[in-house]
Write a structure and sequence with these properties.
heterodimer; A: 300 residues; alpha/beta; Rossmann fold; Alpha-Beta Plaits; 6-stranded mixed sheet; 4-stranded antiparallel sheet; 30% strand; elongated; B: 136 residues; mainly alpha; Arc Repressor Mutant, subunit A; 2 domains; 5 helices
Chain lengths: 300, 136
């Protein structure tokens, strides 16, 4: 039994001369939820398409459940579910037809989950898919990804462009209907830039920048290591030494510092100067993503 | 018992759950024999990874605070202090240290700090008393 669901090693994929993915490596352990964060054009979708053998890498190795998706395409695909960023169905089929069509390719299909989710999302089985809204199409794609009860759920920007209620239901469904089935063997790999919504779900994450990983960490460790310190003095002492901080923003008597694992030392140093107010809080995953350029410059 | 997660504290999420449930047990918000929320609805409500909640419950179980009854769920144990006095005091030290450090930045002096501690002890004692009366 291989305990990593996905292993990517020095993946390179070019479009003409443009390197969309340029030496990416990451490992997703089985049973966890992995966040794959990056700006538009960072190489997220290209990476995911390589995992699904929709694109072939120029070099590097990919393993899904220990298998090469190029050589074992069916074996890999039969064990995963995928929700792409833009969903398209055959427009002449109804919701019912579409689900039956997908089910026909699958070894198993959980009818109870299907009925439960159709009810929860309020989807009408006899409606044509061409008449569905963007949110309803994503919901239908999620149902068809979850019903086969796959070991791996790959989500590519699943919630962008959806309204907040649909987004919330989407995430609750991933947690509830999908993850609860057999939690040890339910892995989620989600690419997104709407990070705060997935904050509670993410165990580990990789930030991808220009086709390469710029930061890979456990979410709890990251929140423990990267902190924002805000301090206000009655008058800013001249002898302060900021060199330990990643970033210093000063606005009159108020100063904001970013700490990388050294918040205790910085706090100690600031306290010695008797500040009027001193606050320290963790960066959220979204803030870590936004500041990742600064954070990774001096990361050990 | 209402649980709330704050990603800003830097405390691991499962730890926050463990601490809040222990607090609920100590303050009477959760009484011995009462069930803890089931993992799935709680995960959906807090929008947390279900593994995080399972980890918190496992930790609480190994601390002897809750017990799992197969097929029924997790319950607060009747007598949840099976540690030796020494161990129990050590567990407390870390939290006391945190409070002492915070008191120091906030320039709360020793006397005021101790007065606060006494006030809180009285508060919980009174609350527990009320809970017992409710049960009668």
């Amino acid at each position: 039994m291989n305990d990593s669901a996905i292993e990517i090693t020095r993946l390179i994929r070019r479009y003409g001369k443009t390197e969309a993915v340029n030496g990416l490596s990451l490992t997703v352990r089985s049973g966890g939820c992995y966040g794959f964060f990056g700006r538009n054009g960072a190489g997220k979708t290209t990476t995911i398409k390589c995992l699904l053998n929709l694109l072939q890498p120029n070099s590097g190795t990919l393993r899904v459940f220990g298998l090469d998706p190029q050589k074992n395409e069916v074996a890999v695909k039969s064990r995963l579910g995928y929700v792409p960023d833009s969903v398209a169905f055959y427009p002449w089929m109804t919701v019912r037809d579409t689900l039956d069509y997908f089910a026909s390719f699958r070894a198993q299909w959980n009818r109870d989950i299907e009925a439960d989710l159709l009810r929860r999302f309020g989807l009408n089985p006899s409606q044509k898919t061409s008449a569905l809204s963007k949110g309803q199409k994503t919901q239908l794609a999620l149902i068809s990804a979850i019903c086969p009860e796959p070991e791996l759920l790959v989500l590519d920007e699943p919630t962008s462009g959806l309204d907040p209620i649909v987004r919330r239901e989407f995430i609750e469904t991933v947690i509830g209907a999908y993850q609860s089935g057999d939690p040890e063997h339910r892995t989620v790999f989600v690419s997104t830039h709407l990070i705060s919504e997935f904050e509670g779900l993410i165990d580990d994450f990789t930030i991808i920048e220009q086709g390469r990983e710029s930061l890979t960490m456990r979410a709890d460790d990251a929140r423990d290591r990267f902190k924002k310190i805000q301090v206000r003095f009655s008058s800013v002492p001249a002898a302060l030494d900021w060199t330990g901080a990643l970033q210093v923003k000063q606005n009159g008597r108020e100063v904001e510092l970013l700490a990388n694992g050294n918040s205790e030392q910085l706090l100690e140093m600031l306290r010695a100067h008797q500040p009027e107010e001193l606050r320290c809080e963790s960066l959220s995953l979204e803030e870590i993503f936004v500041s990742s350029k600064v954070l990774t410059q001096t990361a050990p | 018992m209402l649980l709330q997660i704050d990603f800003k504290t830097g405390k691991p999420v499962y730890r926050q759950l463990v601490d809040q449930i222990r607090y609920a047990a100590a303050s009477g918000a959760l009484r011995p024999g009462e069930p803890l929320p089931s993992i799935r609805p709680l995960a959906e409500e807090l929008r947390l990874n279900r593994n995080t909640i399972a980890k918190a419950y496992t930790e609480l179980e190994s601390q002897g605070i809750i017990e799992t009854i197969p097929g029924k769920g997790c319950f607060l144990k009747e007598n949840n202090a099976h540690f030796t006095k020494d161990v129990r005091q050590k567990l407390l030290l870390k939290e006391i240290d945190e409070a002492v450090v915070t008191a120091h930045h906030l320039q709360v002096d020793r006397a005021a700090f101790l007065a606060l501690v006494n006030e809180r002890l009285d508060y919980f004692k009174q609350k527990a008393g009320l809970v017992r009366e409710d049960n009668k």
